[in-house]
Structure formats: C-alpha cells, structure tokens
Amino acid sequence: MISAVAELYKLHPQTLRLYERVGLLKPSRSDGNTRLYTDSDLERLEVIITLARDMGVNLAGIEIILNMREKLVEMEKQMTEFATVVQQELSRVSSLQNAEKPPRHAIVPARHRFVR
User: Fold this and answer.
1) Which CATH number belongs to the domain containing residue 28 in this structure?
2) Inter-residue contact 66 to 24 (CB < 8 Å)
3) In degrees, to the nearest 5, what angle opens at C-alpha 115 toward C-alphas 114 and 116?
4) Which of 22, 28, 49, 71 is found 20 to 30 A from 90 (Cα to Cα)?
5) Domain count across the chain
6) Backbone angles phi, psi at 28, to 5 degrees
7) How far apart, in whole angstroms, are the C-alpha atoms of residue 93 and residue 112?
8) Residue 35 belongs to what domain range?
C-alpha cells in the first residue's frame, strides 16, 4: 500500500503519486483500487530515489535513465540468447567435422574420394 511504502522509504505519499502520474512507477491495483507495490516496483523505486536524492537527477532524466536500463537488460538478454545459438552451432559443426575425419591412428592413412 502507498502509506506503507511511503513510510518505508521516508517519502510523502504525494511523491509516490507523482512518480506514478509521470509514468516512473506503475503499481498494480486491488479490486478496491488500492495501489499494490511488487518487489520489482520497490527495486525500481529504490533506483528512482537514488537518482533523485543522491544524484540530483530530475524526473525527465530519471525517465531516460530507466528506459536506457530497460533497453540494456533486453540487449543483454538478446546477446546471451545469440551467444547460446552460436555456441550450439559451433558445437554442431565441430561434431560434423570430427565425424568426417579419418582416424589418425590408422596404419594406412585413409584418402577422401571424390565422386564425379
């Protein structure tokens, strides 16, 4: 609830309403229209408070920073997925190449024959 979060972070409830109004926070709502803050909302609020109080960033700057953080997280996710796909493909190609190579310990080396 807004009063509990405001007390916990030593904020006025109006400040939380402002953050919501400008789009920095988006708490869910109960059936009775009470704001419900998730752990994710509270983590985001901590970043907002740090930027505003400790670094003196204004609301427009906070919005830009939060958007950039979200894009970075998404890019990191995409890069991890891409690296996984590349690693899988390299493993697949490597196993195909190893399967095609004749054993090196053979008495007579095998020669590849090309069929025309």
Assistant:
1) 1.10.1660.10
2) yes
3) 115
4) 71
5) 1
6) -75, 175
7) 19
8) 2-98
